[in-house]
Amino acid sequence: MYTKISGTGSALPENRVTNLDFERLVDTTDEWITARTGISERRISSGENTSDFAARAAANALSSAGIGPLDVDLVIAATVSPDSFTPTVSCQVQKALGLAGATCFDLWAGCTGFIFALMTADSLIRSGAFSHALVIGAEVLSKLVDWTDRGTCVLFGDGAGAVVLSQSPNPGVLAHFTGSDGTRGSVLCIDGIPLANPWTADQAPSPPHSVIRMDGQEVFKFAVTAMQQSIRRVCELAGIDLDDVPYIIPHQANNRIIESVAGRMKIPRSRFYTNLDRRGNTSAASIPIALDEMNRAGVLKPQMPLVLVGFGGGLTWGASMIRWIPSSREGS
Ligand code: ACO
Predict the structure, then answer these.
(1) Distance 154 CA to ligand 1 centre (A)
(2) Does 332 reside within a domain?
(3) For burial by CB atoms within 10 Å, which of 220, 259, 278, 292 has the most?
(4) What kind and span of H or E run contains 319?
(5) Final residue before a domain boundary, out of 139, 170, 201
(6) Of ligand 1's atoms, which has the minimum distance to the CA of residue 110?
(7) Last residue of a domain, one of 170, 197, 216
(8) CA of 223 to the centre of ligand 1 (A)
(9) pLDDT of residue 200
């Protein structure tokens, strides 16, 4: 038994925030942000939380797949910005969409979360335990951003993307390559709740809520290496020549990272699909949002191989090779 992506969906905030808006917020310029990152605008939530975007993206993916809520028996949401520790985003999506009977859990792997979630759902479906999974990447990073730090606040956006992963007689999901290095976790952090109970020595009051802290140059170097390794390895594992892959869908962090990978691997930049100029970095949501955009624009053709590749906090990295199989080809 194999799996395939049978539908895609995404959901974004209405609120467009441009680089000019940031000029009024912190000491920055449109020129600096565009030149250093490639980002011109991003969508920032003005009320909806992570599970709201996740549920809307999931509903759109179900409608794209042509299946109903009761067909879904597995929901995995990748996020670093859940509404709450519990209930999870996936359980909140279950409630919102009436996915009665589904097994739901969240997965944390930073910006690589969607790749890890896709790999997990792929394995669980191929084991025979599940038939249709909703695999979601959803973030409202705007609640974790330090809005006084010009080095990070200009980078991020909010939103969600989702796919339906279904059993298939033909191979749609071909291979995954993933890795982690916890020894380098400090270059990209969002702190959790400090340890404090009646038996701990430190009774200091809780600090203000956590924000994203990043050593941008270290993340840059890590990302360029990790993406190259992930792309190469997933091609080897899938037995597909990189030259035969028309599109690579990278985590949408920074245009200069993508240009650097393209240059070092001698891959034309045009084969890397990007939307970060309009979306910013939406962490675990960035790859499924981009995939949904490509699907709805009609860019994806039957049997087309695609590499999805990400990197993120943890540190984590990974890639998936998929072959695009539209649902109608199999009559399912
Ligand atoms: N506007 C104007 N100046 C700025 C801004 C800004 N928004 N941000 C930083 N600067 C300044 C700095 O203060 C510094 O000034 P100084 O020289 O007077 O001290 C100067 O610009 C250079 O700062 P650097 O941090 O060295 O800038 P760099 O060229 O490295 O660009 C950036 C910063 C864009 C973050 C870059 O390091 C990068 O792209 N890193 C990759 C990290 C990334 O994309 N992370 C995304 C999140 S992580 C993830 O998705 C997994």
Answers:
(1) 10
(2) no
(3) 292
(4) strand 316-323
(5) 170
(6) 51
(7) 170
(8) 14
(9) 81
Which residues neighbour 161 within 8 Å (Cβ) at sequence distance 6 or greater?
Answer: 8, 9, 10, 57, 114, 136, 137, 138, 282, 285, 286, 287, 288, 289, 290, 291, 292
Per-residue pLDDT at 196: 79
Which positions are annotated as active-site residues?
A: 111, 251, 281
pLDDT at 204: 67
Provide the domain count of the chain.
Answer: 2
Are 165 and 22 part of one and the same domain? yes
252 Cα: distance to centroid of ligand 1 (angstroms):
16
Are residues 40 and 278 in contact, defined by beta-carbon separation less than 8 angstroms?
Answer: yes
Radius of gyration of the chain (CA): 19
Q: Are residues 152 and 191 in the same domain?
A: no
Reduce the DSSP state of residue 134 to 3 states and report it: strand
Residue 164, SS3 per DSSP: strand
As a whole number, mean pLDDT of residues 212-232 equals 96
3-state helix, strand, coil in the chain (%, to 5): 40, 25, 35
pLDDT, one tens digit per residue, over 58-110 is 999 999 999 999 999 999 999 999 999 999 999 999 999 999 999 999 999 99
CATH of the domain at 250: 3.40.47.10
Q: For residues 158 and 141, what is the distance between their CA atoms, to the nearest angstrom?
A: 6
pLDDT at position 331 is 37
- The response to whether residue 154 sits with its C-beta less than 6 Å from ligand 1 reads yes
For the Cβ of 130 lying below 6 angstroms from any atom of ligand 1, the answer is no
Could you tell me if 117 and 187 lie in one domain? Answer: no
**Is 141 touching ligand 1 by the criterion CB < 6 Å?**
no
Average pLDDT, the chain: 95
Q: What are phi and psi of 112, to 5 degrees?
A: -85, 5
